[in-house]
Amino acid sequence: MNQVVQIPTDPADAAGKVNLLDFDRQGLRDFFTQIGEKPYRAEQVMKWIYHHLESDFAKMTDVGKALRAKLDATCYVGPPKTLFDKAAADGTHKWLLGMDGGNAIEAVYIPEPTRGTLCVSSQVGCGLNCQFCSTATQGFNRNLSTAEVIGQMWVAAKYLGNITHQNRRITNVVMMGMGEPLLNFDNVVKAMSLMRDDLGFGLASKRVTLSTAGLVPMIDKLSEAIDVSLAVSLHAANDELRTELVPLNKRYPIAELTEACLRWIARKPRTSITFEYTLMKGVNDQPEHARQLIRFMRKLPTCKVNLIPFNPFPGTRFERSDADTIRAFQTQLLNAGILTMLRRTRGDDIDAACGQLKGQVLDRTRRQAEFLKRLDQGAVHAG
Ligand code: SF4
């Protein structure tokens, strides 16, 4: 489908310029056609933007002078502004990125010996109200644009000296930062297609993962829209406890979520789904909870579990499970033949661990109340 954009009538007006980070490849080709240029020129420019991380049209040397001048007058390459960045002792890096209205989001880079993972946000705040999540306490403000989602990767890639297809510092991306990505479907899918595109960041499908709290209809829609990997925030394998921890479970209970996951696997037989399970002391870390999780996983035998020790944040009523309990829980799963990984806590000294994203969100209470009302009425699934 062609993406038609409004061309600024006054090129001198920077505010009216078009941000090229808002387009996936097809969108950029359509835009170039619209401004009277050959679509293949769009791909030339795309390579400059994502392979060379160049935002200055004047430096795009294999693009004709006249086109460079036209682009400069009507467009810009506009990633979010970095308010500050911070490195932890273990190499984890966090960028606080400014949004309009005084809001901010965060992107976090986690280096490991064999890979570097960037955790990307999809919304300013989040309205799903998961009880153990720091972002949830801030409420929902708005969806991010495509440019704001892919721009997080652009900023991190530039900082890290990432070179697509050559020096990959970012080998994996997880849509696991602030927000429920499936509630910002179109922008997130476009941004992920830029992560995957050879002229974008060129990552394989198994290296781009979307994590959802379990929006069942949107999981189906995602499987049709793009080839990426899926993670599901499970955190409990019985409905009563999961509804308490992840209120979305009331709308889409575990049986429906299981069916959606089975449909995902049927469509993508060679892929596996990762189920994230945050371990909270005395809440969901007991042997009976492990047994429930084993029963759940038996229905999805090709999938795996990622255990995450809870990261406490100010004001939370939950505590991290102790090390022995975590080990026992993992052993119980492994003994039952469930592929189970334990996530190490990273970036503790810069609050970069999962569930600790701390962007400032305005107007949260009204929007959150509206959102929860719509959720109860079953209106939150149309995307
Ligand atoms: S865990 Fe994810 S979906 Fe749940 S409130 Fe936090 S950001 Fe939103």
What would you note in describing this structure?
The protein has 383 residues and is an alpha/beta fold. The protein has two domains: 63 residues, DNA polymerase, domain 1, CATH 1.10.150.530; 296 residues, Aldolase class I (TIM Barrel). The protein has eleven helices and 14 strands. The strands form three sheets. It has a ten-stranded mixed sheet with strand order 3-4-5-6-9-10-11-12-13-14, covered by helices on one side. A hairpin with a 4-residue loop joins strand 5 and strand 6. Helix 1 crosses helix 2, helix 4 packs parallel to helix 5 and helix 6 packs parallel to helix 8. It starts with 17 loop residues before the first strand and ends in a 7-residue tail after the last helix. The N terminus and C terminus are likely disordered. It binds iron/sulfur cluster. The site of iron/sulfur cluster (SF4) has 12 residues, from loops. Iron/sulfur cluster (SF4) binds next to loops.
